[in-house]
From TrEMBL:
InterPro entries on file: CBFA_NFYB_domain, DNA_Pol-Epsilon_Subunit, Histone-fold
Protein name: Transcription factor CBF/NF-Y/archaeal histone domain-containing protein
A cellular component term, taken from the record's GO annotations: CHRAC
Keywords: Nucleus
Biological source species: Hemiselmis andersenii
Gene3D superfamilies documented for this protein: Histone, subunit A
Region of interest: Disordered: 89-152
GO biological process: DNA damage response; heterochromatin formation; leading strand elongation
Length: 152
């Protein structure tokens, strides 16, 4: 698992600090460990979902594949929050509202015309990111996901 696969530390920091009491401190190594664990979890659930997709003889991951992967991995406590997040996401899309735009800092890569490769975890988690609803999976991605799951 390379650095490109890891969650951005700024997002990990934001999530960790939002959960803990204000006077709590978290070592940098602990945040790196949390990021690594979350990355492994995402790879694992994705691989299980791809297997569900294969069983259906489909190439597009659907929400149901993710939900079945959560059940297969015995993370049943995540099922209701996942359903609630998807319902909120669908309601937001039905109303035509877009998630809040990411603020740009002057002088960053986006302002200079560069591509933003970071991921906004808050939006993804709170809005049940579209990746849970409809993600195309090509054969190369399946092989890569399978190799990542075997290595873990």
């Amino acid at each position: 698992m390379g650095d490109a696969d890891r969650l951005p530390m700024a997002n990990v920091n934001r999530i960790v600090t939002s959960i803990l009491p204000k006077d709590a401190a978290v070592a940098k190594e602990a945040k790196v460990a949390i990021s690594a664990c979350a990355t492994v979890f995402v790879h694992y659930i994705t691989e299980l979902a791809v297997q569900q997709c294969d069983k259906r003889k489909k190439v597009t991951l659907q929400y149901e594949d993710i939900l079945e992967a959560i059940r297969e991995a015995e993370f049943n406590d995540f099922e209701e929050p996942l359903k609630e997040a998807l319902a909120a996401f669908r309601a937001q899309n039905k109303e035509g509202k877009k998630p809040p735009a990411k603020k740009q800092k002057t002088g960053d890569a986006n302002a200079a015309g560069g591509a933003d490769t970071s991921m906004n975890l808050d939006t993804s988690v709170n809005n049940a990111d579209t990746s849970m609803n409809d993600v195309s999976v090509n054969e190369g991605a399946r092989e890569e996901a399978g190799a990542g799951a075997e290595a873990a």
